[in-house]
Design brief:
16 helices; two-stranded antiparallel ribbon; TIM Barrel; 8-stranded mixed β-barrel
Length: 481
């Protein structure tokens, strides 16, 4: 309206042409529109700036809130960690105590079961012996001077009896094959010409394990005499120590260990007599006795536990002995069904000193399906492809060696990664000489699957009657002549 009024005034008052008055009115309208646009834009920019300020303030407030929330979460985490540690540490200590109690209970239970089995077997043996004796007396003619009269079965073979092979010794239930001079002529002067008696049948009963004392290491000459006497008198005992799974602590394997005794019945450990036995040339005989008894025990274990496995140590001296190895290989050929249940063990120094003859001997046993383990490992830098080629499936190292290797380093492979590295190459690690719960906790970080040591169980003697069983008791009377 103001623009029209302006045009009318220009036309009427100033006498301007109508066209000029219209242009004046249009110019006024345009000026008003531009003024309106400018005012509106200024207001819009003002509102937008206010919104931006509001958003900036809101963002700052949100940032403060996030920071405050983050600090609160950190505090909650710290408080939660402290609370959890406070609750878990006593629980961990209690679990450790419970674990120790469970282990003791398991050992007591196993000992009770073992004693019950011994009593049952002793009762059965007495019954069978009485039945056998009754039957023999019923069938026996009146005493006469005839050379064909029968005698009761003797646990000690007659000196004139023919030497038995290893397989016959196992089937017969004796602790070892004959060690007469026809078998090892090189050592016949040291060990006598007559066959050794079976285990558990000496004239002097053995004292129980708990009452035995351990002898100090005598001089070499004295120890060699002690070894010769122990072999001659058959004072060689078989011990078994379990190798358990971790962390379950269930027995997986049993390692066969030999102990000899002096004339007083005192135990002599392998570390004390092995060197002297090697100098005396007795290792093939000792290894044979240990192996035959281990096979006998294994057969009995398999009757109760189908997956029983025994680890048996073989010395380098025995492996290089042609006669021993031939008999050894013949036995394993006859017992190929035990290939999954027998593991033969050699120490690291022995394996690293193997030549072509020993390597071929191991490959021959590998072809029969038997597996090997390397123990006393003190150097982890090993030619593992060679071990796999020879048939080694296990290596044994002590807890001290493995834990020290983690601290000192020096190997291409970190000690903590060693068990996994070995597993990828088909070799499992067994850690022995475990004596504390702290060592177990550290070893679990290594992903070690098998452990051995006094913490789990000490070596236990296998009683002679557990080796012989009812075989000799039920043996029919033999005829003399």
């Amino acid at each position: 309206m103001a623009s029209l009024s302006l045009g009318f005034v220009v036309w009427a008052s100033f006498g301007m042409p109508l066209t000029f008055a219209a242009l004046a009115a249009l110019g006024a309208v345009t000026f008003q529109f531009m003024g309106f646009v400018m005012v509106t834009a200024a207001q819009t920019f003002k509102n937008l700036h206010q919104r931006i300020n509001d958003l900036t303030l809101s963002e700052a407030m949100n940032g403060n809130g996030v920071e405050r929330l983050s600090n609160e979460m950190k505090g909650m985490r710290k408080a939660l960690k402290t609370a959890v540690q406070g609750e878990v540490e006593p629980l961990a200590r209690e679990l450790e105590v419970i674990g120790t109690l469970i282990k003791q209970l398991a050992e007591n239970s196993a000992d009770s079961e073992y004693r019950i089995t011994e009593l049952e077997e002793a009762t059965r043996d007495v019954t069978d012996g009485q039945n056998s004796l009754t039957g023999a007396r019923a069938d026996q003619p009146l005493p006469s001077s005839s050379a064909g009269q029968e005698r009761e079965p003797s646990s000690k073979p007659n000196a004139e009896e023919k030497d038995m092979s290893w397989a016959e010794a196992i089937a017969e239930g004796r602790g070892e094959a004959s060690t007469s001079e026809t078998e090892y002529p090189a050592h016949s002067s040291s060990f006598g010409s007559g066959p050794a008696s079976g285990p558990g049948v000496s004239k002097h009963p053995l004292p129980p394990v708990q009452s035995r004392r351990h002898t100090d290491i005598p001089a070499d000459s004295s120890m060699m005499q002690a070894v010769r006497a122990a072999v001659d008198k058959n004072r060689v005992d078989l011990f078994l120590q379990p190798i358990v799974t971790l962390p379950q602590r269930k027995p997986k394997f049993y390692e066969a260990l030999s102990r000899i005794r002096d004339s007083d019945g005192a135990l002599i450990r392998p570390a004390q007599y092995l060197r002297s036995a090697e100098h005396a040339g007795a290792m093939p005989i000792l290894d044979k006795m240990l192996l035959i008894r281990a096979v006998q025990v294994l057969q009995r274990l398999m009757a109760r536990k189908a997956d029983a496995v025994i680890v048996c140590n073989i010395s380098a001296t025995s492996l290089a002995d042609t006669r021993f190895f031939n008999d050894f290989k013949m036995l394993l050929k006859a017992k190929r069904d035990l290939a999954e249940h027998l593991i033969f063990e050699f120490n690291q120094n022995t394996v690293e000193a193997f030549g072509d003859i020993e390597d071929e001997s191991l490959r021959a046993l590998k072809e029969l399906g038997f597996k090997f383990a390397m123990d006393n490992v003190t150097r982890l830098a090993i030619d593992y492809p060679r071990l796999v080629d020879l048939g080694f499936h296990y290596i044994k190292t002590s807890a001290t060696v493995l834990l020290e290797a983690r601290k000192t380093g020096g190997n291409d492979i970190h000690a903590q990664d060693m068990p996994r590295f070995l597993a990828r190459n088909g070799i499992e690690m067994i850690v022995d000489h475990i004596e504390t719960e702290g060592q177990v906790i550290e070893l679990l970080e290594f992903d070690v699957k098998y452990g051995q040591g006094f913490l789990f169980a000490a070596p236990r003697e296998v009683k002679p009657d557990a080796i012989l069983g009812a075989t000799i008791a039920a043996e029919p009377p033999r005829k003399v002549g």
